[in-house]
Amino acid sequence: MTLSEDGSLALSVHNDLLTIINTKNLIDRKVASPFQQKGSYMGAVISKDNKIAWLSGGNNGDIIVFDLNNLEIIKRISINGLYNKVLYKESFTGDIRLSKDGKTLFILDQFNFRMVTLNLETCTLTGSIPTGRFPFGIDISPDEKYAYVANTGIYDYPLAPGLDKDNLEKVGLDFPPYGIPSGEAEKGININGQKIPGLPWDGTKKRDPLIIKESPPS
């Protein structure tokens, strides 16, 4: 559920419908699902003028722009594609937040372990920033300098060198390569002549909040 900035409107996302509630007289309108069987998730925000809602498209990897007056989809904006020379596929749009000026949407991509920023005036991505494993919830600091992301996992586990779906039995390990926390988990370890990478961080070090200001894409 999300609440409009003036508190007059509440919007809740269900599996197969939306509920739009006028909080002053508690009158609600139920709207058939705008997701068109293309995925949905918990992310939802309302524009400052209460005319537009942005909804997460879940495993479809997009943001749905929904007209709250006419109760129809205006457009869908995908966060898949090339950004800073990296091709992102199979994005899963999760929790979202709207900037104070209503021009930027902060979006969690759960499957690619990142937060992206979307310019709502141009409908283009302006940032793509790594998070922890499976980012689930997001909030923005009052000065909008920081994003705080809650992750449902800790590590972005690397693949063992030479491992792919066709040689798992031959190349894959049948036991954990290291304990956590440990020096091996941080720096990696050699097993049977094979270098097993360490984890991106060892889980014991304090991490700074993610700075959300980023240079334009190259």
Span from first to last CA?
Answer: 36 Å
The major β-sheet equals: 4 strands, antiparallel
Q: If classified by CATH, what would the architecture of the largest domain be?
A: 7 Propeller
Compute the number of structural domains. Answer: 2
Strand content: 35-45%
Reading the helices and strands in chain order gives EEEEEEEEEEEEEEEEHHEEE
The total beta strand count reads 19
- Averaging pLDDT over every residue, what do you get? 84
How would you name the CATH homologous superfamily of the largest domain? YVTN repeat-like/Quinoprotein amine dehydrogenase
Q: Cα-atom Rg, whole angstroms?
A: 21 Å
- The DSSP helix count reads 2
CATH topology of the largest domain: Methylamine Dehydrogenase, Chain H
What class would the helix/strand composition place it in?
mainly beta
Task: Name the overall outline.
Answer: elongated
CATH class of the largest domain: Mainly Beta
Q: Strand sequence of the main sheet, in spatial order?
A: 1-2-3-4
Low-confidence stretches: 202-218
Helix content: under 10%
Name the descriptors.
2 helices, Methylamine Dehydrogenase, Chain H, mainly beta, 218 residues, four-stranded antiparallel beta sheet, disordered C terminus
